[in-house]
Design goal:
By secondary structure, the protein is of the alpha+beta class. About 30% of the residues lie in helices and about 40% in strands. The protein contains six helices and 13 strands. The strands form three sheets. Strands 2-13-12-4-7-9 form a six-stranded mixed sheet. The termini are far apart.
Length: about 250
């Protein structure tokens, strides 16, 4: 805990140094911000990790930070109970949906930003553009499916809202928590500077989340040699099963 406080103090000192040495930074077209680290390595003991995002702002301006994770097709299934059993009756697959979506703001984004700006920049859970992969689903009401996707991702802690703090109307910071089930890949971090409900500038950075250790080697081997990995897995399962059967016979 002490180390974390020392690190945070150092970040604040760094920002104050920037304000003194580079007074025009806050007035530039882009918002200055940085992260406590730009890479997270996941090993077998990974239980989640917190990153600190900090930056400069100006009086009478607001900041919204959006973290978007790797995009992937996501399938939502509708379950119904028939004769006491649950069955998947319908499903909709949405194309290239961010698996992770974090929002950071000091106020409700509906008060901070014009609705059209939110729509154009996909700012807000309900402003994420969800396009069904199957064209026939374009002609059905997808509202409930959208709600289900957001609810499921929130339950996994992959869609989440964080509080952004302002200090003396010159500094801002937020703590981003990446849970243990966070997907690997490239994460786009965008900071929007807002005035009079309009975006006046934005800045981007990347966070890389990678697997490390033996888990990383197995993962990349499986990705690059999927057929061979499948054969090895089957052989390994047969060996383990046969060994267990022999042991039980002797007992």
């Amino acid at each position: 805990m002490k180390i974390e406080k020392i690190k945070l103090f150092n970040y604040k000192i760094l920002i104050l140094f920037c304000i003194i040495v580079y007074p025009n930074l806050a007035n530039s077209q882009k918002t200055y911000f940085d992260l406590s680290q730009n890479e997270i390595n996941i090993d077998t003991n990974f239980t989640g990790q917190e990153l600190i995002l900090f930056g400069l702002t100006e009086p009478k301006q607001d900041i919204i930070v959006i973290v978007r994770g790797p995009k992937e097709d996501l399938t939502i299934r509708n379950k119904k109970r028939i004769l006491g059993f649950w069955f998947n009756t319908n499903s909709v697959t949405f194309a290239k949906v961010p698996k992770v979506y974090f929002i950071c703001s000091n106020y409700n984004i509906e008060y901070l930003l014009d609705a059209n700006e939110r729509f154009e920049n996909e700012i807000g859970f309900h402003k994420i553009k969800l396009v069904p992969k199957n064209e026939k689903n374009l002609f059905i009401d997808l509202k409930d499916w959208h709600e289900s996707l957001i609810r499921i991702q929130k339950k996994k802690n992959l869609y989440k809202q964080f509080k952004l703090e302002s200090i003396d109307e010159k500094l801002f910071q937020t703590r981003l928590y990446f849970p243990a089930n966070i997907p690997t890949g490239k994460y786009d971090v965008t900071t929007y500077r807002i005035k009079d409900k309009k975006i006046i500038s934005l800045s981007n950075k990347l966070i890389l989340i990678n697997k490390s250790g033996i888990g990383s080697k197995i993962y990349f081997f499986a990705q690059e040699n999927s057929i061979l990995y499948g054969i090895v897995t089957i052989i390994f399962a047969i060996i383990i099963g046969s060994g267990a059967a022999i042991i039980f016979r002797k007992l």
